[in-house]
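Re: weekly structure request thread

Next one in the queue (389 aa):
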Amino acid sequence: MSILEKAIQSAQQAEIAFSKFIKPNDTGSTGGHQAGFHMHKNSWPLFFETPGEKGANKDKYVTIRWHDDFETESRFIYYGVGTRDEYRLTRFGRGFPFLTDDNVGDLLVLVKKSADFFEGYVLSSDDDIEDFFAALNISSTETNGIIPKQIEQTAEDRLLQCFMAYVQSLQIDFPPTIDLANNARTCFVNSYNITPNQIKSNPDKELLNWLEAEYALFKTIENDRYSELIRTPFESVEELVKSANTILNRRKSRAGKSLEHHLEEIFRISELIFQTQVTTENNKKPDFLFPNIEAYNNPNFDNGKLIILASKTTCKDRWRQILNEADRIRTKHLFTLQQGISKNQLEEMNQYGVQLVIPKAYLSSFPAEHRANILTLEQFVRYVNSTQP
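Done, posted below.
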C-alpha cells in the first residue's frame, strides 16, 4: 500500500484528523521561533480536552508514527505567555526528514489513533495531494485545520453511484439485457456487501433485490437516454406513437430475460449442475434443465433425477406453453413472479403436472389450501441439490 493510500485510509477511519500545507515558518526558514509545525488554533481537539488559555503555557507529549516507518516522541504545546498565542508541534529529533526547505508546500496529515498515539504523513506530489483532497472530500482552502468527519455513505448512495458510473461508461444507448442484469446485480451485491453465503441462505430475498435493482438501473438509463427526446416536441402523432412503442417494447424485452439471468446466477452460486436453453423434443428449449442434456438423452439415466424449470414473470395464461418442453419429465416446474392465481387454475396446473416455484414473500398471495404444493426458490434449490451427485 502506498503512503498516499495509507494516509487516506488512516484519515477516513479516524475520529479526528488534521491537515495543513507546510510553510516556511514551520521549517525555521524565516528565522523565527524554533522549527516545528505551527498548528491552527482550531486544532486543539487533536491533543487537548480544552483550548489553551491566554496567560499560561500547556503541553502534551505524544508518539507519532511517520509513514508507518519510524516514530518520534513529540510535544504539542500551547504558548500563551506574554504576547504569544499559538500552538506548535515540536521535538522530532535529529535527522527528521520533513522539516527542510524542500518540504515547504508539502501537505502534512496528522491522524489521532488514541489519546497519545498519532500517525503522520507528508504528501509531496501534486497528484498525491489532489487525490487526498478528493478522497476526503475537502479542498485546498479547507486545510490548516481539522478534517471534517465524513458522513458515511449509505448502501443506497453507493448503489446510485455505481449505477451512474455504469451509465456514463456505456458506449451504446442500451446494453444487452444480460449486461444490464449482471451490472445491476454486481452494483447491488457490492453496495450492500452481500456474500455468497447470504445468497445461498436466502435466495428468494436476493432474487427480488436483484430484480428491483435492475429495474432501477434500467429506469436510470431510460431517464438519461430519453431526457432530450421528451423535452423536444414531436413533429406528429405518428412520431410520438413510434417512440412510445420503442420504449415499451424495450421494457418488455428486458423484463422477459431479466428473470432468467438472475435465476441462473442463483443456481450457479448454489453450485447446481444445469444447462440453459438446450434443445429437447420438437425443437423445444426449456429455460433450465438439470443436470444437463447428456443425462436427458441417456435412456439409462434416472428420470426422477431429471428436472426442468421454466421462468415466466406472469403465468396465468402462459403456463400451458411448458407442457411439452421435455417429454421424459412428468412434473414441469415453473418459476413465476405472478402474485396470486385462482384455485381453479392451480388445480388445473396440478392435473397437468405443473408445480409452481415462487419467491417466498409471494406465498401468502396464493390460496392457503394450495401453498403446500408450491415451492419457494430456496426449497426448489434444495430439491434439485438432493437429486444431484
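The mean pLDDT is 89. Residues 3-146 form a domain with the At1g16640 B3 domain fold (CATH 2.40.330.10).
Next request, please.
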